[in-house]
Amino acid sequence: MRIERISEILEEGKRAFSEAADEASRSETEVRLLGRKSELSEILRGLKDLSPEEKREFGPVVQGARRALEEAAAAAKERLLVEGRDWESERIDVSLPGADDPLGHLHPVTTMIREIEDIFTRLGFEIAEGPELETEFYNFDALNVPADHPARDMQDTFFVESDGFDTRYLLRTHTSPVQVRYMETHTPPFRIIVPGRVFRNESTDASHEHTFHQFESLVVGETGDVTVGHFKHLGETFFSEFFGRHVEVRLRPSYFPFVEPGFEFDISCVLCGGAGCPACKRTGWLEVGGAGMVQQKVFEAAGYPRGKYQGFAWGFGLERLVMMKRRIPDIRLLMSGDLRFIRQF
Ligand code: YSA
Q: Is 17 left (phi over 0), alpha (psi -120 to 50) or beta?
């Protein structure tokens, strides 16, 4: 065995690996120089037949040559991988504008609920809520709307099949049932608002939806502490803040079984300032909801003693306020799911 021959194999191998132009020739070189039938493997196998002195002399040289060739083979593989990449197709133009990933945003009704909650929270109100699937008791009976009373027809109701239950379930037609639910667990004085979704079994048009939102307000204190004057003032304060301009409130006598006296609640037209325009049908006023002083029977249904407390409540249609504020001509657009509409907000 000649040391010179091992050096020759090593030199030739290093050159062959560094000159390999593609993976096929690199791999062929690897088999030829390092494979089982290669000269180097043959020499390695022959080491066992040498004398101990010769083993000591040749062993490290042959092993070293093999390691060096394996490293040269790996380096060539790495080099060919890098050279073989199609860098042109992977080029990134960092000066190009970024991809347009559209960001979602809140629905105008949600934005408005938050705005209303903000205003009332600043005025010291608490926000309460109740179930959308309601019992006939809270939606009607507790609000002094007895069974078979014509007042029950004022709101067309989606009743839910309630066989097997003691009570009849329905989709609440207004947020007023939360009044009684809240009072059952709280003692006056308190002031709350109740924003929420309500449902009515009625045909739709530009100002009527079957599913819409109301927000209720309920303020209760000891008898004599809460008056219609407070109520009118609160309405003016809220609507002026909400529309960002001075708004007048007008109360017209009306009937709701759960209040006495009851009112229709009008505000001065926010488009013409009360002068008269098509939006207010030239009256200068816009109707926004119902209101009144809470009926003692409602207090009794909540477990309060008759005559001890006094308070007012109102229920406003939220979509109609959104329509006024955002100048939306048809309520049905809000629930249409039409992105061309929603993206404007
Ligand atoms: C009255 C007195 C109180 O002490 C408390 C609350 C109330 C309001 C009562 N609960 C109620 O629901 N009255 S209402 O049937 O006249 O509805 C109130 C408001 O909801 C309406 O003024 C209107 O703005 C809105 N609304 C009613 N039906 C609607 C609707 N909005 C859109 N689509 C409908 N179908």
A: alpha
pTM of the predicted protein model: 0.74
Q: Which residue CA neighbors atom 13 of ligand 1 most closely?
A: 290
- DSSP letter at 151? G
Burial class (CB in 10 A: 0-12, 13-18, 19+), 116: buried
Please state the atom number of ligand 1 nearest to the C-alpha of residue 320: 24
Pocket test for ligand 1, best of 320, 328, 333, 334 (most atoms within 8 A of CB): 320
The whole-angstrom separation of Cα 323 and Cα 236 is: 19
Amino acid of residue 45: R
pLDDT (tens digit, 9 = 90+) per residue, 5-15? Answer: 899 999 999 99
Calculate the CA dihedral of residues 149, 155, 161, 163 and round it to 10 degrees: -20
Closest residue to atom 12 of ligand 1, CA basis: 174
Q: Which two tokens stand for residue 157?
A: 């109701």
Residue indicated by tokens 């394996």: 70
At residue 266, φ and ψ (nearest 5 deg) are -110, 150
**Bond into 189 cis (ω within 30):** yes
Burial class, 115, CB count within 10 angstroms (exposed 0-12 / middle 13-18 / buried 19+): middle
Which residue has the least CA distance to atom 32 on ligand 1? Answer: 208
**Superfamily of chain region 108-342:** Bira Bifunctional Protein; Domain 2 (3.30.930.10)
pLDDT per residue over 163-183, tens digit each? 898 888 999 999 999 999 999
Cα 337 to the chain's mean position, in Å? Answer: 15
Which residues line ligand 1 at a C-beta cut-off of 6 Å? Answer: 155, 174, 176, 200, 202, 208-209, 212, 214, 216, 256, 258-259, 289-292, 313-317, 319-320, 331
Q: Which atom of ligand 1 is nearest to the CA of 154?
A: 15
Residue located nearest, by CA, to atom 21 of ligand 1: 289
